[in-house]
Fold:
Amino acid sequence: MASLNNKTVWITGASSGIGEALSYELNKKGCKLILSSRTTKALEKVKNNCERPSNVSILPLDITEYYEMPAKVKKAITAFGSVDVLINNAGISQRSFIVDTDFEVYKQLVDINYLGTVALTKAILPYFIERQKGHFATVTSLMGKFGSPVRSGYCGSKHALHGFFDVLRMEHEKDHILVTLVAPGFVQTNIAKNALVGDGSARGHEDTDNANGLTTVDFSKKMIKAIEKEKYEVYMGGKEILGIYLKRFFPKLLHKVVLQNAAKK
Ligand SMILES: NC(=O)c1ccc[n+]([C@@H]2O[C@H](COP(=O)([O-])OP(=O)(O)OC[C@H]3O[C@@H](n4cnc5c(N)ncnc54)[C@H](OP(=O)(O)O)[C@@H]3O)[C@@H](O)[C@H]2O)c1
Structure:
């Protein structure tokens, strides 16, 4: 078990929800933090709410500006002299049927959730290889393991992350680079409110599933433990986790259960 105490951790999507809660928990553990997302003001607020703001550096970025990522990596390393862990957490969801969804929405989901994460990961990879250490902790979703209606593009982008990071773990084991895939179920954040609908606008309201999900504090504590235990892949949530096992052993039953649940909403 490798404690994160006093490590330097770079968190994307740190301005709200899971990323924000991770920032507070890791700051309490004495970590040096680099916080990224598009919204500087929100990042500054998170920094100021930390117990030890002097251990926090703000690095605004839009993860879809792929070719800027090598420059962002240089800045992140300079902030505290090293980066030990990259938490790939930035992401956006979707709530719209396939037939109603503009192609541009699919592009946006893949651009942010998948290609943005790949671009940042690839930008820091040479640094981790040179150091012969480094840890990628990537927040995917249970929707990266099985499907559910109105989330087709989201599911696709999150499934893709599992493929990419499983390969990264294999190719760079020799360089002592670690990969932890964290697949949440429902967590109490604004993810459903910010989710894209068919025309690309934001949904604008919450989901009861998310409102009844894990708190961000409970989630982030569990996620930190999983990183410290160097887990390959973890699922965190309530009974929705059962979907993983149904998919593996009883895929037709999963299909029925998910459709029944969707019909109730
Ligand atoms: N909450 C859940 O139930 C749940 C379940 C499964 C998976 N997840 C995953 O958890 C992660 C965090 O989401 P959350 O639930 O905490 O939702 P959230 O509160 O909406 O947070 C999303 C974060 O991503 C950032 N972001 C979005 N687009 C970005 C871009 N182009 N460049 C950089 N940052 C960007 C946002 O910051 P800015 O707007 O400031 O850029 C925000 O900090 C996501 O990957 C999500 O898919 C959440």
Remarks:
- Residues 8-239 form a domain with the Rossmann fold fold (CATH 3.40.50.720).
- Residues 12-13, 15-19, 37-39, 42, 61-64, 89-93, 112, 116, 139, 141, 184, 186-187, 189-191, 194, 210, 213 surround NAP (CB under 6 Å).
- Strands lie at 8-12, 32-36, 56-58, 85-88, 134-139, 177-184, 233-236.
- The longest helix spans residues 103-131.
